[in-house]
Design brief:
The protein is an alpha+beta fold. It contains eight helices and 31 strands. Strands 22, 24, 25, 26, 27, 29 and 30 form a seven-stranded mixed sheet that branches. A hairpin with a 2-residue loop joins strand 5 and strand 6. The two termini are 63 Å apart.
Length: 613
């Protein structure tokens, strides 16, 4: 009997040790289960193993004040390494009743784990509590106002334009800079609204990696970086507005306890004691929109001109032309090119108009754009290629082409021209009406005579009810039917391409995410963020059939609502995009890690794909 008890105890001990060694607990805890409306509660989710892709629940009837605050501990006992991760949230009760704090989810060892849920009891506030809440609300309003003033003084977005008065077509460079106080603890900094540039043709200038440098401005030190640079060409006269560049920001400030504040200094709660009295202070997050100022540009009309060769060109240019060959046969294609090169609004110049003899057929020109932004202007050249097909033999003179532009330095119109070109055309293999000799061409200019048949008898058959008559009668109907078939086939092809992109959207996104993870493992952060951003935006573009040029947070949100996707999925998608953009724009750490961004991107793509099936 005694031996049997020892065996049972030994088995239980082995099972207990086994459970201790292999337990993997993902649990939720709160600092209290009963509280009053207006009280705060701390919810902590913890796991004692390596984990990733943490997904918090939606906190109903509780206002999120702070979080997630992430922490981790590493212990080494007898050579065995154990890790402990936790995610904490500070919440405020906003209504009375019994509520359930839902489960959170996390991924560990390839498995999805779910935490326990917690029931809390929120009581109606006592009279003393109501008085306290009212007092705190007034204090918070004052604090919010002071905090926003402080943030706006120490976090600025400024825009600098190269000129505020310009002609239509004259280049203007707008440079956006961010100014940060080095001690400002920024948790989030993401674009809320990009500048509206109505009335301007614009192109963004590549600024490369965003780099900060210290500058002293009016006795204050700031970290300064260029975050956006755009070249603008005004397209109409009058007062044009360069709209503001808006950023959504969350800043964590150190707040002193009430008994430590000095009423005569409204900012004592913040910067003046930013690193003082550590144990007598707490931290609070403040959210606000930081905007750059809008700028008004006075745009003047160009001086009036009646020159037909003016093609809206403003700048300084040269023009040249050439044929790919000077001898050709009838019916043979000849390439005639006109190059306009220089500096100015090259991308807005109309193609030159050429005048050719009627016996030379000419097609619409093809534009070869070889321009780039160099400093504060567009430089390079545009080459216009015209395909000419001569129909008759002879020596043809292609006239010089005039080109007029407005020179900004001289403030006047200048006309330049190409050289004349000579094209020698010989008879080709095919014979056409206009390919006959000179005598026959002159003969055609005479009055129309009856067509002779082979026997020399005049053909005097009327056109009415002839085969040509019926051909001309039914030809428009036939052409309309063929056009209808062509458009329907094109629409089917477009739909097939869109459907193909939709079906392959997730596969392409996962492939890009795989590449981004490799960049992250190599600590190539810029490439990681770029590839992750392209994966999300590319997936959304293909999945919802949105053109790349029309991709924006607002369009994505609207399309996802139209597809009846859950509100929490829409919010997590927008938040993931914002987190990725924030990491690209700011060098400061935030509560979101690079690995978290990767996991969120993967999770968003997977959930959208599953929901739309």
């Amino acid at each position: 009997m005694y031996k049997m008890k020892r065996i049972i105890l030994l088995i239980l001990l082995i099972l207990a040790i086994n459970n201790i060694g292999y337990s993997q607990n993902f649990r939720a805890t709160v600092d209290r289960n009963t509280l009053e409306v207006g009280d705060r509660i701390t919810v902590t989710y913890s796991i004692d193993n390596e984990a990733s892709n943490f997904r918090p629940p939606k906190f109903s009837n509780l206002k999120l004040l702070m979080g997630p605050s992430q922490s981790q501990n590493v212990q080494i006992i007898n050579g065995k390494v154990s890790r402990y991760f936790s995610f904490s949230y500070v919440l405020e009760a906003i209504s009375s009743g019994k509520f359930i704090i839902p489960s959170a989810k996390i991924t560990s060892n390839g498995k999805e784990l779910t935490s326990n849920s917690i029931e809390i009891n929120v009581l109606k506030p006592s009279q003393a509590k109501q008085d306290q809440m009212k007092q705190e609300e007034e204090q918070n309003k004052t604090m919010e106002s002071q905090a926003k003033d402080l943030i706006n003084q120490n976090l600025k977005i400024e825009v600098e334009v190269s000129k505020t008065t310009a002609y239509v077509g004259e280049p203007i460079v707008a440079t956006y800079r961010i100014y940060l106080h080095p001690q400002l603890n920024i948790l989030q900094l993401s674009p809320e609204k990009t500048p509206q540039l109505n009335g301007f043709w614009n192109q963004e200038i590549d600024i490369g990696k965003i780099e900060y440098n210290l500058q002293n401005i009016n006795g204050k030190t700031y970290q300064v970086a260029i975050i956006k640079k755009v070249i603008l060409f005004p397209q109409q006269s009058g007062k044009l507005i360069i709209d503001s560049y808006d950023f959504n920001t969350i800043v964590r400030l150190q707040v002193q306890n009430q008994d430590r504040r000095r009423n005569n200094d409204p900012f004592n709660s913040f910067f003046d004691s930013f690193f003082d009295d550590f144990f007598n202070t707490s931290y609070k997050d403040f959210q606000t929109i930081v905007k750059s100022p809008s700028v008004t540009i006075n745009v003047k009309d160009l001086p009036p001109t009646n020159t037909p060769s003016f093609a809206n060109a403003v700048g300084d240019f040269k023009i040249s032309s050439w044929l790919d060959k000077t001898s050709a046969k009838t019916g043979e294609a000849v390439s005639y090119k006109i190059k306009i090169e220089g500096m100015g609004n090259l991308k807005l110049i109309s193609a030159p108009t050429i005048t050719l003899p009627p016996s030379i057929e000419v097609y619409e020109p093809k534009l070869i754009d070889n321009t780039q932004i160099n400093g504060s202007n567009v430089v390079g050249n545009n080459t216009y290629e015209y395909i000419l097909i001569p129909q008759a033999t002879g020596k043809y003179k292609i006239p010089a082409v005039e080109f007029t532009y407005f020179n900004l330095e001289q403030k006047k119109y200048i006309t330049i021209s190409t050289a004349e070109q000579i094209l020698n055309v010989q008879q080709g293999n095919s014979q056409s009406l206009s390919n006959t000799n000179k005598e026959n061409v002159e003969y055609l200019n005479q009055d129309i005579d009856f067509i002779k048949n082979e026997m020399g008898i005049r053909a005097n058959k009327p056109l009415f009810f002839s085969s040509i008559y019926f051909l001309l009668l039914f030809l428009p109907i036939l052409l309309f039917f063929l056009l209808f078939l062509y458009r329907r086939k094109k629409k089917e092809n477009d739909n097939n391409i869109s459907a193909y992109k939709q079906s392959k959207a997730r596969k392409q996104a996962i492939k890009r995410l795989s590449n981004s993870r490799k960049f992250l493992q190599k600590s190539e952060i810029e490439k990681f963020l770029d590839e992750t951003s392209r994966a999300i935006w590319g997936f959304l573009s293909d999945k919802f059939i949105i053109e790349q040029a029309k991709l924006s947070r607002e369009n994505i949100e609207e399309v996802m609502k139209q597809n009846n996707l859950p509100e929490d999925l829409i919010k997590s998608t927008i938040q993931t995009l914002d987190d990725c953009e924030f990491k690209r724009f700011s060098q400061f750490d935030s509560s979101v890690s690079y690995l978290q961004i990767y996991s969120d991107a993967e999770n968003v793509i997977t959930k959208i794909e599953e929901t739309l099936k």
